[in-house]
Structure formats: structure tokens, C-alpha cells
Amino acid sequence: MAYRTGVSLLLWRWLPLRRRWGVIQIIAALSVVGIAIGAGTLLSVLSIFKGFHHAAQTLLLRYDPHIRLVPVQGQWMVAPPETLKAYARLSGAQAVMPVVSLRLMARHGEALSPAFLVAAPEAELRRATAIPEAMVLGEFRFQSAGLPSVVVGAGLAQRLHVLPGDTLLVWTPNMLEQLALGLPFQPGIAVVVAGIFQSPAGEQQSLSIYADTGVGRLLAGFPPHGWSSVDIWLPRSEEVPHALRFFQEQGGKTFRPLPWYELHRQLYDVLRLERLGTFIVLSLIVLVAVFNVAASLRMSAVRKQREIAIVRALGMQAMDIQRLYVRQGFILGGLGILVGVLAGIGFYWGQQRFGWIRLDPTRYILSSLPVRLELWDVLTVTVVGFALVLTAAIVPARWAARQRIAEALREE
Fold first, then answer.
1. For a Cys staple, 149 with which of 24, 106, 144, 399, CB 3.0–4.6 Å?
2. Residues 359 and 253 occupy one common structural domain
């Protein structure tokens, strides 16, 4: 017990921050401040990236499903109403929407533009998507007394110079192929623009035409109960893995399920790569500060060669000297990591509660900088910080433990 007490006393007595201020103490203090800045910045930036990731996911899932069932072969899959109801019941889905989708060429007057048709039941679109809420002109409806009604994205409306009430002509790729080959072809299908919506979910949404399933079947020529895809919306995003396994078991050779992050793989990979790159770059800040810990411990060990030799001569083991300096490194690094983590959590809490950093609502979708922090992020920053501290402290600790008693006393 007395031996351990003596080691603990030496630990605190030799701690660089406890002695009168000099070069060693300044370097140790700067290392603590640097680690705190690095850990706080790292945690804050991670919370911002995760906040943007969550905001993008929430935005995309207002227009696209959590899981999309697509045919394994061919352009369509058969899914009768009873099958759709069974999928909804067994997977716990909030909405199951069959969709006919295909690429089109749309024309209004002399203006031409490629477009993407999404044909689905109007009631399901109202219940599952945010398209009705995104209307900027006209109204969201497919029922009309004359020609079929559609709603179009703002990008497509701008390209074609259309307003609600205008008539569009649309052609499928098959129609255009027949025209190119000089074969008899149908001169396009006329539809009336009932409304225009503004979607922040991407260019494809901006160039989309939403129509009733009757229009989609007329253009695509699918058989009864044949669909391009079946879109699944779940109550929560956390249920995607469970539902994905269910549909993978049910699909077989008929269809395969694609989760939302596969539908937006490019965006998802960019966000993940940026987050990883930022984590690595900001970890270098902590690494540079950690080298200051190693420098202060090495200088402290050099200055205390006589004291180390004396306690070694009194019976202290080399391993105890090594542990003593490693613990000093942990104390210095741990103090910086603790301050940095608390600062990062404080930034997250303040931004969530008070919205310190505001965004221009005329230029951005969000009114304030989004942040999101999880326990896993805090643990990751803490573990990485302590791993770097341990790596830096082990070198001067081994050097101090390898001092020869006789040589150190003779030099003094």
C-alpha cells in the first residue's frame, strides 16, 4: 500500500502543470489547449455533418420511399392488390404505393424537354409524399372532365414555358423510335397541366410529371397489376433494415428491394466521404497537440533523470516509471479531451436550442445550421483522442524507464 501511495505521489509531484512555470509547463499547457480545441472542433463538425445528413435524409424521404421494390428482369413486376395489402401488413409499412414510371419527351409549343413520368394513385401520393404541399401554382389533382390532368415540376415548367391550364404532348421512347424508323406511330398523348410544384429533392423531381395510373398504363403498355416498382414508406427510418430483410426473403427472382440510400447512392457516398475526410483532417489537429504532450513528458524526464535514478535505486521498477509517465500523458490528454468534448456538446446543445448560426431562408432550405449528435460520436472522439495520447506518451515513458541508474547519478 505504501509503495503504491509513493508512486501516486510521484505521479502528481512530477506532473508538468504542477511545477513553477517554465518551458515544460508552457508546452504542456499548450498541448492541453490544443487537444481541447481539436476535440471540440472535431465533435462540432461531426454534429454538423450528421445534421446535414439527417436533414437530407428527411427531405428525400418526403418524396422518395424508404424501400423501393424493382423487378429483377424486365420493365415491370406483377403485384395484385391483395399482394400489396399483404406486404403492408407483414412489413409494418405505413404506405405501399404501386408506381408506373418511365422516361418521356414532353412538348409545349416549340419547346421540347425530356421528362420523367411517375404514375400512381392520387390518394397514395397525397398520403405518402409531400408533392401536394410543394405546389406553387395550380392544384394537385388528376381528375378532370376532359383530358387527363398532371402536375409537373418547376424545372420542367420553366423549360417548356407552361402554366396551369396549358396542354402538353408527351411521347414515350417507343413512340420516338417508331418515328425515327418511319413506322406508323401515335402522335403523342395530350395532358393538361393542373399544377406546378417546387421540389428541393433534386433535378429528377424538378423534371418530373406526376399523373394517374391510367395515364401511366396507357403510355407504358403494362399488363393488369403490372408496375415499374412498388414504393414502401415505413413509420421510421430505423425500421429499414428489418423491412429490407423481409422483402429480400419475399422477392426471390421476382423483385429486389432497394433501400433509400441505394436510390441516392451518389449523394449518400459524397456525404459519407466528406464526413470521413473531415474526421481524418481534424484528427490531425489533435495529433499535433498530442506531440506537444510527448515533448513535455520527454523534457520532464530529461530534467528529472536524477530523481528517476534515486527512486530506481530505492527499489522502484522500470515498469512503474513507464506507467507513471503514461499516466501523466493520460492526465494531460484526458483534461484536454474532457474540455473539448464538453465544448462540442455545448455547441450542439446551444445550436439545437437557440439556433446560434442562422442561414438565409431565401437561399437555403433550412433556417439554421442543422446539428445532430449521438453517443457514438462522443465515444468515437474520446477513444480516438486517448489512442493518440497513448501513442505519444509511450515513447517518452519508455525512454524514462530505460535510464541507467549509475550513469544518471554519475552525470549529476
1. 144
2. no
